[in-house]
Amino acid sequence: MKPTPSPSVMKPHPLAQESHAAASAFAASALAADAGRAGEKSDTSAPASHASGPTDAGGQGRGVRDPRPTAEGHHPVEPDALHGSVPEALPQGISSSARRLPDVDGRPFVVDSAAGAWITDAEGRRYLDFAMAMGATVLGHAHPAVVEACTRALQRGAMPGFTHAGEAAAAQALVRHAGPLVHATFVSTGSEAVHLACRIARRATARPVVAKIAAGYDGWYDDVALGWTGSAEADLSGARPLAHGVTLVRWNDLSDLEALFAERDDIAAVLVEPVLANAGCLMPQPGYLQGLQQLCRRHGALVIADEVLTGMRLHPGPSSLTMGLEPDLVTLGKAIGSGVPVAAVLGTAQAFAPVVDGRVARAGTYHGNPLVTAAVLATCEVLESSDHAALLQRGERLAAGVREAFGRAGIDVSTSGLGSVFSLWFAGRAPTRYEEAKALLQPERSLALHMALRREGVLTMPSGWGRLFLSFAHDDADVDFALAAFGRAAQALAPLRCAPAFPGTVVPGR
Fold first, then answer.
1. CATH classification of the domain holding 225
2. 209: closest CA among 182, 156, 248?
3. What is the mean pLDDT of residues 414-440?
4. Residue 146: pLDDT over 90
5. Are residues 123 and 192 in the same domain?
6. What is the 3-state secondary structure (H, E, C) of 353-394?
7. pLDDT tens-digit map of 333-367
8. Gap between the Cα atoms of 308 and 318, Å rounded
9. Which pLDDT does position 82 carry in this prediction?
């Protein structure tokens, strides 16, 4: 007989619970307010205000149905298919439940194509995309240089299965802007990269335990899926948890890290994001990353910077290097392949010693194949000639404009993040610790905003923990279009002005 799964295995993931709870609450309250502003339209046609808005090179109004003919041989997926036989073969109609967007006006969201900063759905409506596949591209969808490089690789054979020149060239491209990180090895996903980095750290230090930041994501493998946002473990309210050789430590809390090292002498590494992205882009407080590194050095532990999300967003290399951190190992993914599934682990000569001498096992048929390394090479080449400062300024303008739009609607909001990736908080100032963020979370409001923006032709993540991503494909006109949409969406949310107080504040009458 097969063993019965434990209750913890059978329990729904916190993100799924949040999504369902938010959807139910929104249907009861926020949807009514937003639907009233939208005129209770039953279709997803663009608001009339878009007709006179900015146009693309072809003169087409943004946020409207795409009149262009379908390419020969191309058959868009019908959205009704998701309510038919498809779910029988593919549960929930998608392979990662966190990527399934809620229906709007009874219609599912099904992508037909994506190019630059825009996505076209199966009904022909275009959306300005600020989800950007959860940050999987910083160049924009279907960048011509990446498409061309990948096409050539496919024509030459995407899977020879043995050594090819492109793999070493792609590794060299990644370490070119990585300072002391002189080695790189490829995997296919960010989760695999984190898994391999932890394996390297354990072998390099001969220690078994990795400490990760509570509320950090770091992948969906069992060994690092401890302490996700919304989980009981992330609260660290009792004894410090330990599972699969992984334990937790609080973000922006050096005293808790000191306590961890006092409790244990078997810590191989501390796994940390330079920005705690999946907890709402919580920024490190001044001196935190440097203090974390000093404590790790003092106690013989390595520092693993998980940059699957933040890498390549401040310069053509790991962002942590510009934020005062000098990690021993770095995980990269998402942006390095511009939408092609590839990730990598970078490391110093000392940290990578057990990889170089073969003590760390590496395997994987697809890792470093010609297709993905062609994408990495093309992406790195484009990034080296891109203006990161301009990208960050554009993101800061968007964030400031969003705050102003909500202010005009009488709603206090704040933002936190790196410019090209930031989160929106329904509070006068952004949280810096997970316990603050959890108290400020308003999933119903976040979902209401997502719905309102969808109707305006702007695509965002629906979760309160979500982020807005900018790419080099977003231009100033796109930011203007987005700010106009946010202005109308903020007015739609105005009836829901009442917000929870920031933890530690006193509100008269409460």
1. 3.40.640.10
2. 248
3. 97
4. yes
5. no
6. HHHHCCCCCCCCCCCCCHHHHHHHHHHHHHHHCCCHHHHHHH
7. 999 999 999 999 999 999 999 999 999 999 999 99
8. 9
9. 53
Sign of CA dihedral 287, 289, 292, 293: negative
Give the amino acid at 463: S
Average pLDDT, the chain: 85
Residue that is last in its domain, among 339, 366, 384:
384
- Report the distance separating Cα 327 and Cα 293, nearest Å: 8
- State whether 191 and 327 are in the same domain: yes
How many domains, the chain?
A: 2
Question: What is the pLDDT at residue 81?
Answer: 53
Please tell me the total number of residues recorded for the chain in this structure.
510
**Residues facing 425 on adjacent strands:** 414
Q: Is residue 276 part of a domain?
A: yes
Distance, CA of 379 to CA of 312 (rounded, Å):
10
Q: Are residues 261 and 340 in the same domain?
A: yes
Q: Enter the tokens of residue 179.
A: 């300072």
Task: Compute the Cα dihedral for 179, 183, 185, 190 and give only its sign.
Answer: negative
Q: Which of these ranges, 19-28, 271-280, 388-397, has the smallest mean pLDDT?
A: 19-28
Please tell me whether residue 500 adopts helix, strand or coil conformation. coil
CB 117 within 8 A of CB 129: yes
Measured CA to CA, the distance from residue 406 to residue 280 in angstroms comes to 18
pLDDT at residue number 88: 76
| CATH number of the domain that residue 79 is part of | 3.90.1150.10
pLDDT tens digits, one per residue of 17-51 = 443 343 334 333 433 333 333 333 333 333 333 33
Own/partner contacts of 440-444, CB < 8 Å, gap of 24 or more, are: 440/500, 440/502, 440/503, 441/280, 441/465, 442/499, 442/500, 443/18, 443/19, 443/21, 443/22, 443/25, 444/22, 444/25, 444/26, 444/29, 444/30, 444/496
Q: Give the domain-ending residue among 384, 406, 439.
A: 384
Supply the range of the domain harboring residue 333: 144-384
Q: pTM for the full model?
A: 0.83
Give the 3-state secondary structure of residue 150.
Answer: helix
